[in-house]
Design goal:
There is one protein chain. The protein is α+β, with helices and mostly antiparallel strands. The protein has two domains: 121 residues, N-terminal domain of MutM-like DNA repair proteins, CATH 3.20.190.10; 119 residues, Helicase, Ruva Protein, domain 3, CATH 1.10.8. The chain is built from six helices and ten strands, in the order αββββββββαααααββ. A four-stranded antiparallel beta sheet has the order 1-6-7-5, covered by helices on one side. The protein has a four-stranded antiparallel beta sheet with strand order 2-3-4-8, with helices on one face. The longest helix is centred in the first third of the chain and has 15 residues. The radius of gyration is 20 Å and the shape is globular. The protein starts with a helix and ends in a 6-residue tail after the last strand.
Length: 263
Amino acid sequence: MPEGDTVYAAAARLRAGLAGRVLESSDFRIPSLATADLSGREVLAVRSVGKHLLIDVAESGPGVGDTLSIHSHLKMEGAWHVHPRGQRWRRPAYQARAVLRTADHEAVGFDLGVLELLADPDAALAYLGPDLLADDFDREEAIRRLGSDPDATIGAALLDQRLIAGIGNVFRSEICFLRRVLPTRPVGEVDLGPVVDLSRRLLWANRMRSARTTTGNTSPNARMWVYGRHGRLCRRCATPVKRGELESPGGERSVYWCPRCQV
């Protein structure tokens, strides 16, 4: 499930294969970009902003405009793969939404939930809260935004990308467990400083891992404290882990908690 750490790692892989190179061809397989052609443009940078991924390309002649960014969001099933040209794709071609080729590398975006060209990506994403993986992460602003609605549940607030960017459903449950707070507890009753610090620490620790873990154990059945462990015993107190639906940005989402460890 792509969260901020997953997108950060995807950006790093794309950066290694594309940054500083000229696109020999671009193939966007969605109707809105069917005629877009970025060939001849240099890839200036690849960066993540929360759960959003931006590939910045340079100005080059007439066509789609000046310097712009390829903006994508992985949603639930999306992925970017980058590999030497000529290597077999690891997913079926019908899932491809974008294909970018340089002289020696190929990047393919599969099942991207959002794909568009933006002339001013920073303005388009200005609504996002502080990015947990940004070098200039603003801790105090993140705390201020999270606390802006004291009646909201902490579980819903953590998923609201306008407040803090990068947390998804997995980290939401794990953060609440590690802070020993129920996801349904009102924000106004939660000490937000430690929540923000833990959130940044967890995403930072996982940003380049092949297997996400919040326990520190990378064994397949030992990576999470509560997420995905409904009915199994809490690793701390041996109480069965609960699962429920919590109203969150975008609709109800599953959340996991220990009814004994969290209050």
